[in-house]
Design a protein that fits this description.
about 140 residues; single chain; mainly alpha
C-alpha cells in the first residue's frame, strides 16, 4: 500500500524517500530498501546520513559487501558526515560480512564511539572467531567508561 502511494506521488523529496527506504529496512525488506536507494540515485536525489544508515544496515543483513562498499563510496563522494550512527552501521556491515580489518579501521576512524559501536565491533570479532581480539576490545571499552 505505501509503495503504491509512493509510486503515484508526482513529486518525491528526501523525506519521502527516507521514509520508504527506512520503512523497508525496518520491516526486513532489505532488498527493497537497497533497490529504492538505487532508484533514488537514478532520480538525482542526494541521500543523507539517515538514508545511508538504512541502506548500509540492509547490506549487512543481506551479506552484500559489494553493495555496502558502493554505499560507502557514495558517502565519501557526497561528503556525508561519518557520525557515530552511520559509522556504527558501517562497522556492523563490515563485521557481519567478515571484513574484520575494515570494520576495525572504520571503528578507529569514528570521531566518537558509543556502546553500540563497541558492541558492533566486538560481536563481529566474536562471530568470526576472533575471541582474543574481541576480549581485547572489550577491555578497551571498559577502560574508557
Amino acid at each position: 500500500m505505501a509503495r503504491k502511494l509512493f509510486d503515484t506521488m508526482p513529486e518525491k523529496n528526501l523525506v519521502t524517500w527516507s521514509i520508504m527506504i527506512s520503512g523497508n529496512a525496518k520491516n526486513n525488506n532489505f532488498e527493497k530498501a537497497v533497490e529504492l536507494f538505487q532508484v533514488l540515485q537514478e532520480e538525482g536525489v542526494k541521500a543523507n546520513e539517515t538514508v545511508m544508515v538504512s541502506v548500509i544496515s540492509s547490506c549487512a543483513h543481506l551479506d552484500a559487501i559489494e553493495l555496502g562498499e558502493k554505499a560507502r563510496e557514495y558517502i565519501v563522494r557526497n561528503n556525508l558526515s561519518l557520525n557515530v550512527i552511520l559509522g556504527t552501521a558501517l562497522v556492523d556491515m563490515y563485521a557481519r560480512c567478515g571484513s574484520i580489518e575494515k570494520a576495525i579501521r572504520v571503528f578507529q576512524e569514528l570521531p566518537e564511539s558509543d556502546v553500540l559501536s563497541w558492541t558492533a565491533l566486538i560481536a563481529g570479532l566474536a562471530m568470526h572467531g576472533y575471541a582474543e581480539r574481541a576480549l581485547w576490545f572489550f577491555s578497551e571499552m571498559v577502560k574508557q567508561d
